[in-house]
Amino acid sequence: MSLSPEHMGMDPPMQKRKSSWCARHSNMEATAMSVDYTGQWILLAGRRHLALQSLDRAEDDEDGMQKFQRNSKYEVSTAKFAICSHSQEYCAIATSQLIEVVTWKSRDPLLMYSLRAHTRVVTDIDWHSKEPHLLASCSIDTFTHLWDLRDPRKPTMSFSAVCMSGATQVGLNRVSGYLLATAHDGDLRIWDRRKGSCPIQYITAHSARIHGINWSHRHESQLTTASQDGTVKYFDINNSRCLEKMIKVSSPVWRARYTPQGDGLLTVIVPHSGHDELSSLQLWSNNNQRAPVCTFLGHTDVVLDFAWRPKSTEDTSPDMQLITWSRDCTLRLWRIDEDLQKLINREDSQTEKVDSGTDDMILEECLPQTKKKGGKRGDIESPPSCSLQHEFSLLNTNIPHIDVEELDPVKRAAMAQVSANGHVIVLQVYFPTNYPNVLPQFTYLPGTSVDDTLSAQLMRVLRQTANQRVKKGKTCLEQCLRALVTALKKSTSGGDKSYLRLQSPRLEGALSGALHDACVPFPKTSGARFSSVGILVTFVQPLNTKRISLRHQTTTPRALSALSGGYLGNVMGSLPVLYAPRDGNSSAFYLQDRVRKTSRHRLGPQQKMFSSDVTVYDLSKHLHVSRELAEKYVINTDNLAEMCKINKMVAEEHGRSDLVQCWSLAEMIATPVVDVETDEDMFYSQNPFSRNLLESLILHFAKNRDVQTAAMLCCAFGRHCPPSEMSRSSSSGSKSISQSPSGSPYHTILPLDTTSSHVGHQEWHLVTQLKNLRSNSWSDSLDDCRAAGNHVNKSLLGDSQRHFHDILKSTYAEMLYRWDLLVQRAKVLKYLSTPPESPRGVDFVTECLVCNRNSTAVIPFCSNCHRPLLYCALCRLPVRGAANACLQCGHGGHTLHMMEWFSRYDVCAAGCGCRCLLETTFTNEYPKK
Fold first, then answer.
1. Which of 10, 66, 499, 660 fits as disulfide partner to 5, beta carbons 3.0 to 4.6 Å?
2. Is residue 685 helix, strand or coil?
3. Is 465 helix (H, G, I), strand (E, B) or coil?
4. Which of 548-552, 624-628, 816-820 has the lowest average pLDDT?
5. Nearest-angstrom CA–CA distance, 727 and 693
């Protein structure tokens, strides 16, 4: 009886499968692919076309594709359909710095939203699996934005990795929905949107760039990464120091994604050129990383993207379906039958965790024996290659002095124009098929304005820069263009010593100050701020009219690095990066030449010293509040009618006709028709509309920011308690309020927020209270008067808006304090329903010598053990009356005994040697120094 490889402890032989359906679209230069939520349509997106391929008619009609013209200057970096049923018609397409969300409800693509926030090319996007309107995007500008399509004007959250490498991949967690992971060169950052914009995990994952991130469909904390270093790594973010598992192959891994069913992983590798049929698609079992269980054959070029087809409700087949799009312009469909599903679900007891710091436990890929015999060792160990389209998508098209005119991944060519110091170079770059293992070809095109000697020198710089990159199997286009600009500037200007070469471009913890400035917002060049008493302070940075004119600068720079002329370039590679100065426009616009004033050289008429101007304006004449009125206003609640009459005369004297009318109405309200001295319940009952009128006046002046008039009316007609009666009225007042949030069970006023007691912020609370303020029934006043008893004054306003009125009074008191009207401020504070907190001074803490408990209570004994706290150093008796103690040693005693002792001696009476008088004097004088 023969045993199977599984029974013998060996891996089963690797299976090979071919696609069940294939469609060739030779005229489609698509760089991104996605499958919609229903699994019926495939989107192919490119620079010139958008195409929808129907999968329902795919096997019957090979021409079942709808094309839509799209003439764009830039290629599509990524495109993805939404993965929620409520937003299944949405599709996000990222092009350069723009993300377009489109639908196909009509015949042509309909643009729904245009998301603009990134300053560099968008490298990846990902939809939320639970919230239909949530979309994540990342870019080379180091930012990762979280968008809510219900408000697409700006991101709802932004995560910034302050590092030199941008974000190349983003992945939202499929289980919880709160976590997301981003890739920065070879590092991972894990973010939790519930915990702000700081990452919760830093993982040093790979030695080269990460091309793919994929979260597990079943486990919240597990994810995989695919890297340029030829490895796929499994991580558990709860134990990020220990690498769970690892797959190692001999080529770069472009993507690695979990299977929607079972326990498998599908990888896309970028094999070496020269093969007629590429085995770049490999299916792995997560329980066995030694060898893939299946290889999918059919594509003759690199697979650009793949997706799992969602199952429809009508599909009863157990097979999973895989859809791939390759650079050979073929669209293929593969079926994962039950046999393959059993292989990926097979348990393997020999699987072990791999320590991230141990190289001896790396698991090599199990290649077929025929390839090992026929293949050369140099081919297996040669540096990995990368997609040319991917390099073009990561290219910074906003480099100073460089204008990228053409990027054609099909023709494998690029053309750029470099302009610096009066010279123009038109450069064409051709990339061979085995690039980046070999040098690209550089050619000068007509329009180049440099001589033969300089052109030969620049060509040597290009080839030398490219050679340094390709020796390590890395891309070189952007680095060559930057080196060309640097060499052109040095050759024409005699050398430039302002270039700073960094020795460790990936070291985040030791970044130079200039690189930190690239992430710091540009300082304010102008501003204005109001005070609460009518003072406006403004400042402005004068322009350097000597070096630059206003028409050359239209916007404020984004980062502080513009002051030093710095520009933070692309540092995705491992070579040192040049921190190159810009053309000077940004810095020259805000910085002036330093003019040194010496005895020999004085400032001439054209050499003026520039300085920022700070201007203070008095706007009190344009505001509703007035210091002159505050000085002459009176508060006399014993005779309200006389108080309103005097204040009306003050307003008339200062030409405030609006306030004259207000105080006239207040005088009418304060003048009762009949005398009601004996019956408190009949207070103001002869004019039942007076309370509504008074509340309307207070609300009108508060909304118009005339806190002065509103607070004066509250002081006159509002409830206040005398200080001697405050303790007795507090219990009855709290009982009245406890009936309902506003004091009456029939009120229509929303509860007011009085959590903050800081006087300096009362004006902000005033604005928020006005939003929720509504009128109330006038009948509450009678209830309030009855509830308070005889401990409070008669009030027309009642207690329903007591807290709001206290905010008005406190805000007005703060204005009086800033006007230095302290007497008027003290009068206003007396009319608060709750007296302000008295300022606290220094509290002395006593420590019991028996139980070692601290106490701030002014009592002569410990509140815990009831032992005396202080014994006199002379008579040794406990001190219960007037006492003095040294702040240095803590010894002391009765005041009379201490006075008698220190009249003769200058050392402590307890014998500790402390010079108490000297130490105490030093302690008292220390704050003054």
1. 10
2. coil
3. helix
4. 548-552
5. 32
Q: Confirm if 202 and 187 have CB atoms less than 8 A apart.
A: yes
- Distance between CA atoms of residues 894 and 924, nearest Å: 21
Which single residue is written with the structure tokens 């005369």? 649
* E strand or H helix at 737: helix 726-737
**Is the distance from CB of 112 to CB of 102 less than 8 angstroms?**
yes
Q: How far apart are the first and last CA of the chain?
A: 99
Estimate the share of the chain in helix, then strand, then coil, as percent rounded to the nearest 5: 25, 25, 50
Q: How far apart are alpha carbons 643 and 635 in whole angstroms? A: 6
Q: What is the per-residue DSSP string for 62-88?
A: TT-EEEEE---SS-EEEEEE--SGGGT
Task: List, in sequence order, every residue forming a beta bridge with 234; answer none if it has no partner.
Answer: 224, 245
Q: Does the pLDDT value for residue 62 go beyond 80? A: no
Cα separation of 335 and 319, whole Å?
A: 6
| Model pLDDT for residues 102-133, shown as the tens digit of each residue | 998 766 788 999 999 898 999 999 999 989 89
Q: How far is CA 545 from the centre of its chain?
A: 37
The pLDDT, as a whole number, for residue 35 is: 93
Distance (Å, whole) CA 759 – CA 751: 20
**pLDDT band at residue 720 under the 50/70/90 scheme:** low
Report the amino acid identity of residue 316: T
Q: Which of 769, 742, 758 is nearest to 836 (CA)?
A: 758
User: Which has the closest alpha carbon to 86: 149, 139, 34?
Assistant: 149
Q: Which residues of 504-540 are buried (b: 16+ CB within 10 A; e: fewer)?
A: ebbeeeebeebbebbbeebeeeeeeeeebbbeeeeee
- Number of CB atoms found within 10 A of residue 800's CB: 25
Backbone phi and psi for residue 426, each to the nearest 5 degrees, phi listed first: -105, 110
Coil/strand/helix, residue 104: coil
Contacts of 230 by beta carbon, 8 Å cutoff, 6+ apart: 248, 249, 250, 251, 252, 253, 269, 384
pLDDT at 585: 47
Mean pLDDT of 304-333: 85
C-alpha span between 426 and 895 (Å, rounded)? 95
Q: What is the CA radius of gyration of the chain?
A: 40
CB 34, CB 41: distance < 8 Å: no
The tokens for 449 are 């304005």
- CB hemisphere CA count around 557 (13 angstroms): 26
Q: Is pLDDT of 147 > 90? A: yes
pTM for the full model? 0.44
State what percent of residues in the chain have pLDDT above 70.
68
Q: How far apart are CA 438 and CA 466, in angstroms?
A: 9
Q: Tokens standing for 889? A: 């040693």
